[in-house]
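Entry 14. Two folds queued back to back today. First construct below, sequence then structure tokens.
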Amino acid sequence: MADKMVRIMCPNLTCRKVLAVPEIARGKTVRCKECGTNIRVPGAKPSPADSSGTTK
């Protein structure tokens, strides 16, 4: 399996299960297998080389 995985934690306070979802799921919604809560997978992190934080 060559796909990278993203680890996220279920936000449901009674569950808090750690889920491993494929990298391609970034920006999408997945469902916790334990409690059924819908979880939004965070988008890709910006790389340090792309950060042009200067404002003119």
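Second construct, same run, same settings:
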Amino acid sequence: MPKRQLTGKIVSVKTPNMVVVSVEKIKEHQKYKKRFKFHQKYKAHYEEGEYQPEDMVVIEETRPISKDKRWKVIKKI
């Protein structure tokens, strides 16, 4: 089974080896069929590399690394 990959924008880089990534998704209302955007934040692990807020990155699902981290940064776009 392939691992999920999401693309998002870095929101916070305050802790070592962890970034917070905001992913924008589009949903459709069940009754009215109107589409709307919403953002979801994911905590992602990274080994090396310089990341700044507003960078676009690709994150991939992985095994649990800590209490909140289940994603890791794959590459910077």
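Quick look at the second one. The domain at 5-76 is CATH 2.40.50.140 (OB fold (Dihydrolipoamide Acetyltransferase, E2P)). The chain has one domain: 5-76.
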